[in-house]
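Input record (one chain):
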Amino acid sequence: MTRALRSDSPAFRRFASRSMLASAAALAAATMFLAAGQTRAAEQAVAIAPPAVDEAAAPSRNETAVFAGGCFWGVQAVFQHVKGVSQAVSGYAGGGAGTAHYEQVGMGNTGHAESVQVTYDPSRVTYGQLLQIYFSVAHDPTQRDRQGPDVGTQYRSTVFAATGEQRKIAQAYIAQLDRSGAYARPLATTVENLKGFYPAESYHQDYLAHHPDSMYIVINDLPKIENLSRMFADRYRERPVLVNG
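The corresponding structure, as predicted from the sequence alone:
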């Protein structure tokens, strides 16, 4: 059941700021902001090699992966445009079921991170290939406990490993990327065992698809989709797979 946000709560203020639909003037201002090259570091894609360690090729079946990389709106949208992904759901991971609600997670003391659960077919896209997209275009893995304008442990960069194999692949790839020198700073991404994933409230699902003109989306998240289509053209699909069809 969706909980209503109190208008005086910090979580409401964050949501209101993030979800503000752009008026013509606001959208024009955002366009000028982008044209001036003033995009935040979270939207700067980095070209990286694929992981040297990956899962073995497998028959067609569904597997799941959970990633946290700042606001889940943009991360969800990125994976919704990836071929081989059948669903990407915004939610919470890292804490308990009792606190898996936006208003509580927004306080930053629940252990949760805004996360996305990705359901995928490993015969079409592997776990390692999802990680490559996650590290390259979905977020900035060098930022600790924040992404762009969003600050707090709930915005941390974390791979939630559901299996020992996922943990091994993620840890090996982080080490590989740190050795590569592709990033100006060491990766801040942590690997945590997945204890549970809790879908977010309905108003967070498919947010970019429903609000493409939101100034927050225009500035912070649409560039991620553009980077995905440019840097992973063979894995990009134009029409996203949406939670609500």
